[in-house]
Amino acid sequence: MNVTLRQLRAFCALAQTSSFTDAAASLHVTQSALSGLIKELEQTLGVQVVNRSTRKVQLSEVGREFYPLATKVLQDLDGALETMADLKALKRGLVRIAAPQLMSCTVLPEVIAQFQQHYPEIQVRLFDCMVESVLSKVHSGEVDFGIGPEREPMADIEAKTLFEMPFVVVFPKGHPLEPLEHVTWAQALQHPLVALQGEFTQRLRLDLHQSVRHLALNPANEVTFMTTALAMVSAGLGVTTCSPYANSLIQRHRLLSRPLVEPAIERRFFVFTRKDRPLSPAALRFETFLMDYVACHDWPDTQNIED
């Protein structure tokens, strides 16, 4: 059975007007074309849906049963098409993002706020999580895309470079490192280091060893979140390292930072997506918005505070 949408629209228009002339006019077709569509519908269904007379058109008993069903089909379809049009026009939509805790409390709130000024009907949900959880959330489909530093590649994950930044060392005001414009890793590691647990420190240790073999990265404390590390530095428990994009958080803790050199080690951050799942129009627009935001944003290498 192959009932067409044109047949359903013709039938519903006729049921609403009880007139072939008025129904044809509402659909912008000829009366003969409308009559042909009703006949095709009856042939397809194998029943008569309209009782025809010279004075008035009435639905048959079967037609009266069929009318609310046909109306619902058309309403559902029109609603679905309207939703698709809104999604394409960015009048509605949902974007789900996974990002590490540090980026989630520095860069992304500002990006989301600016994005929603342009697209207020699009909802953005941010999942702040451990760095190691970002890729798994993308892989499972829990989020549309993830943002984070370089990790071991996965066959089904595509990675687009978001930015590349050097490390800075962070310390409290009055610290011996404050007079320096740049700090070498050897100078930084003379002080107790508060580092992040897991792959962050492992990769950093490997990069340092490859560049300066005599330097040993032995943290005094390893914590899960950079906010904890900054709080410990603020309490005078050592120094820490991070990327300049965290300057807003460094400033909130009233800390200072200096570029780390000899060697100058950089970290790349990526946008991760599933290769087999195209982004929705809303998610694709947010990704482009994020890329544009980063491209025109200048994060300084140092952050000073005032008394």
Automatic annotation (TrEMBL):
InterPro entries: HTH-type_LysR_regulators, LysR_HTH_N, LysR_subst-bd, WH-like_DNA-bd_sf, WH_DNA-bd_sf. Keywords: DNA-binding, Transcription, Transcription regulation. Pfam families: HTH_1, LysR_substrate. Residues 3-60 form the HTH lysR-type domain. GO terms for cellular component: cytosol. One of its GO terms (molecular function) is DNA binding. It comes from the Bacteria. Belongs to the LysR transcriptional regulatory family. This is LysR family transcriptional regulator. It comes from Rhodoferax aquaticus.
